[in-house]
Amino acid sequence: MLTVHHPAGGVRTERNGPVTPSLAVVTDGGRIAAIGPYEKLLAEYGGDGGGARVRTWDGALEPGRYAADGAALLETFYWPDPREAGDLGTAPLPVAAVAMTDTRWSASARRGVQRLLARGVTAAAGPFTRPEVAAAVRRAGLRAAPADLVVGGNADFAVFPGGRDAPDGAAGTALVTVLAGRLVHRRA
Description:
With 188 residues, the protein is an alpha+beta fold. It has six helices and twelve strands.
C-alpha cells in the first residue's frame, strides 16, 4: 500500500546529515518509493486517483536509531512485566537477579524489543545467542545494521518530536517507528 509520510519537522535522509524541511517520504510496502517535496509527492501519489494514504507526523522523519548494544540489552537484562512491578519494579534487572525460564526469556525479549522500538530503534547489533531473544528480534523485523533513507531501500525509519537532536528527541521516545513499511510503534 502506498503511503505518503509528511513530517512537519522535515526529513533527514542520512544518519548524520541535516534535516531538510518540506520533504516527504513515500513508501510502497516495505520499500521507499520516493523522497521529495511534499506538494510534488502529494500530487503524484496522493489525491485524484493516486490512492496513497497520507500520514502527517508532528516531528522529523529520519533513519531509526541503532542499538549497538542490542545483544547486551536483551540478553543480560530481564525486562519486568508490568504485573511484576510490585515485586520487581519497572526497570530492567540483571538476569542473574531473576529465576529465568524459557517463558520468562521470551516475554522479557518481547518487552525489551518493544522498549527499543519505542526509542526509534530500527537496527540492533547481535549476535543473539538466546533463541528466545533471536526470535523476538526477528519477529519484530529489527535489522542487523542501520541504513540511510534512499529510494528503493527498506522503509525503516522513525519520527522524533523536534528531531533526534532536540532534547526530547534525544532522551525520549519516538512518535512512531516504522519497519519494512509497517508501523510497529506509535506513542500514545
